[in-house]
Amino acid sequence: MSRSANTPGGQRDSATGPTGGARETEEPLLTLRGVRKSFPGRRGAERHVVLRSIDLDVHAGQCVVLIGGSGSGKSTLLRCVNLLEVVDDGVITLEGREITDPRVNADEIRSRIGIVFQGYNLFPHLSVLDNITLAPVRVHGRSKAEARETARDMLERVGLAEKADARPDDLSGGQQQRVAIARALVNHPRLLLLDEVTSALDPELVGEVLDLLRDLADQGMTMILNTHEMGFARQVADVVAHLSGGVIAEIGTRAQVIDAPQTEATRRFLSRLHA
Length: 275
Ligand SMILES: Nc1ncnc2c1ncn2[C@@H]1O[C@H](COP(=O)(O)OP(=O)(O)O)[C@@H](O)[C@H]1O
Ligand SMILES: [Mg+2]
What we know:
This protein is an alpha/beta fold. It has two domains: 3-112 and 189-274, P-loop containing nucleotide triphosphate hydrolases (Rossmann fold); 122-188, no CATH class. Helices cover 35% and strands 21% of the residues. It has ten helices and ten strands. The chain has a six-stranded mixed β-sheet, sandwiched between helices. A hairpin with an 8-residue loop joins strand 1 (30-39) and strand 2. It is globular. The structure holds adenosine-5'-diphosphate and magnesium ion. The site of adenosine-5'-diphosphate has 10 residues, from helix 2. Magnesium ion binds at residues 74-75, 195-196. Keywords: Amino-acid transport, ATP-binding, Cell membrane, Membrane, Nucleotide-binding, Transport. Its main location: membrane.
């Protein structure tokens, strides 16, 4: 299934408004309000505020592409959403429920939010299938048989059904990253977070991973992804958000933000990328 099959020019219909349009009347799947995150400064220096105040809505089915310079906090933002970092302040909700409430069960939330990192983090001593079933069985209490069945479905979905018994080292980097994506999909997450998932790949392997992400977007998966691949962002993003100075400096459709940026910060970022 390819995006170009249903929309002219291979691009999503952008007539749906700045943040995905028709869906905006519905309650967002994910909201961030005033999210702040700092880290301890080095040797008694003041805390380093990475996210000053982030406001963001993500609606079901949207693909949100986060752009921003190195160190602008893109990974930190995704890690806060997945509760891998504890926010200093602000509120994050998933399906209307506050997940930044310290009383929530983080494992349960993470079963509804898949995350994939730049490095695939697969266990080399486990088969592909066992890599995928590990968390569902150990953390989320699924039966082994059920987990294996779902894992096989997910391998099918990422085009690697025949690699179930292979070891990660026997796969190419692109295939390993597709396994990592299958692993993130295995709990049928409501939201998928993808942190520079093609940055560590040899250039010739980037395409197969981007194709998979495009398929997932076409299938209606809600995603937030960080990428420097502007060509890809231009094809899949319903919303482009530029993170700069600890805030979302600019947000809108890809046509607005990538092709006609309104803020000086975004213009500067994009011209540096093109240079
Ligand atoms: N665990 C941490 N401890 C201290 N500083 C961190 C930590 N994680 C990230 N940072 C700092 O936060 C800033 C933003 O990092 P990051 O979110 O990785 O940016 P990006 O993904 O946009 O490149 C950087 O200055 C980084 O050094
Ligand atoms: Mg990063």
